[in-house]
């Protein structure tokens, strides 16, 4: 059976025409899919013959809400989603003045092993299909009755490790016949897979790229992020410069501040030196403390001093506002607690 939600509109058009139907039928099917229908029977402007044909050949892959938590502090919503194979993933919806921003997962679990992240504690189970990434957005919109206007691929998983499905997702979510979310309203976050950053650059898709850096030197970064042993900072920076030559869009560097580890003024000075001359922005993140880990959050004064040091050195910097702190809104936390309760 074919997962019809995993088709791009072009692929769906070709498939529908192979069934002997006119091309315009594919547009009707595509539009129904992104209205959130759960059955081909609900596609009421299709002939009964076509509906029966589709039912015999394909299925609509649906992501279901398993659990929902709403922050009493800022209204942030954390979802646990149930997939068709009963795996669990998670997503977050945050409300801003410019609309709803959804943070979605790209894998079930993660293999990157970053020491400060809950997502990776159980390892990688499998990649998500584009349809399951789309399905998170459809489930959120159905539950909230509102449109998602911005997407961040920054939940559980490393999207560039799931490169082909992540790119397929970008093509589908941007399609004006579907969810029609503009590329400039989409951010993809990677922990630094240098070859894949180059591949992404060559596609010249004008999304926002975020790099999880978290350290200004190889020695420190290797202790926090195993991927740094494969791709040292010089290789990562070269990939970022290549990306900028292809896209000329500002790169965001994510930097999670960990008490006594990477939050000293000397680290800020090293970071400023590393990034000087790049079209970039630093997003400082007071780390979310993970139950299974031993890293502690930097205090507010340290975070402010770090920000001030970077700005004095000419690096554009902001401090990310914490959201959903009362509902375990950081990547992997809710999923991990849910899995423990299931054991």
Describe the structure.
This protein has 343 residues and is of the alpha/beta class. The chain has two domains: 2-59, DNA polymerase, domain 1 (Orthogonal Bundle); 64-342, TIM Barrel. Helix content is 37%, strand content 21%. The strands form three sheets. It has a ten-stranded mixed beta sheet, with helices on both faces. Strands 1-2 form a two-stranded parallel ribbon. It is elongated, with a radius of gyration of 21 Å. The protein starts with a strand and ends with a helix. The model has no long low-confidence stretch (mean pLDDT 93).
Condensed summary:
Helix content is 37%, strand content 21%.
- What is the H/E order? EHHHEEEEEEEHEHEHEHHHEHEHEH
Secondary-structure content class: alpha/beta
Q: Roughly how much helix do the residues carry, as a percent range?
A: 25-40%
Largest sheet, in brief, is: 10 strands, mixed
User: What's the total number of strands?
Assistant: 14
The number of distinct helices, counting runs of at least 4 residues, comes to 12
What is Rg?
21 Å
Spatial strand sequence of the major β-sheet:
3-4-5-6-9-10-11-12-13-14
Beta-strand content bin: 15-25%
Looking at the structure, the CATH topology of the largest domain is TIM Barrel
What is the overall silhouette? elongated
CATH class of the largest domain: Alpha Beta
Termini distance? Answer: 32 Å
Q: Tell me the number of structural domains.
A: 2
CATH architecture of the largest domain: Alpha-Beta Barrel
Low-pLDDT segments: none
Q: What is the H level of CATH, i.e. the homologous superfamily of the largest domain?
A: Aldolase class I
Could you report the average pLDDT, rounded to the nearest whole number?
A: 93
């Amino acid at each position: 059976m074919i997962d019809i939600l995993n088709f791009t509109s072009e692929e769906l058009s070709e498939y529908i025409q192979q069934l002997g139907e006119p091309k315009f039928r594919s547009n009707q099917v595509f539009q129904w899919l992104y209205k959130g229908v759960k059955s081909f029977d609900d596609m009421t402007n299709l002939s009964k013959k076509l509906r029966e044909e589709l039912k015999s050949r394909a299925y609509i892959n649906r992501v279901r809400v398993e659990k929902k938590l709403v922050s009493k502090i800022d209204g942030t919503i954390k979802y646990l989603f149930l997939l068709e194979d009963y795996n669990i993933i998670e997503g977050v919806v945050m409300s801003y003045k410019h609309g709803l921003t959804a943070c979605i997962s790209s894998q079930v679990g993660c293999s990157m092993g970053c020491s400060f992240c809950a997502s990776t504690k159980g390892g990688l189970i499998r990649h998500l299909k584009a349809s399951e990434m789309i399905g998170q957005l459809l489930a959120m919109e159905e539950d909230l009755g509102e449109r998602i206007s911005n997407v961040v691929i920054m939940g559980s998983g490393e999207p560039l490790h799931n490169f082909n499905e992540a790119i397929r997702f970008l093509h589908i979510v941007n399609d004006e016949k579907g969810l029609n979310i503009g590329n400039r309203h989409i951010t993809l976050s990677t922990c630094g897979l240098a070859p894949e950053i180059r591949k992404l650059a060559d596609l010249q898709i004008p999304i926002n790229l975020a790099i999880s850096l978290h350290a200004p030197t190889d020695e420190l970064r290797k202790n926090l992020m195993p991927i740094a042993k494969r791709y040292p900072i010089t290789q990562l920076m070269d990939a970022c410069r290549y990306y900028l030559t292809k896209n000329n869009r500002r790169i965001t560097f994510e930097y999670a501040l960990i008490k006594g580890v990477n939050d000293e003024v000397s680290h800020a000075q090293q970071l400023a030196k590393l990034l000087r001359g790049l079209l970039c922005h630093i997003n400082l993140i007071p780390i979310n403390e993970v139950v299974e880990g031993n890293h502690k959050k930097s205090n507010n004064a340290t975070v402010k001093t770090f920000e001030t040091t970077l700005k004095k050195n000419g690096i554009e910097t902001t401090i990310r506002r914490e959201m959903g702190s009362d509902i375990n809104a950081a990547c992997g936390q809710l999923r991990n607690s849910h899995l423990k309760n299931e054991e």
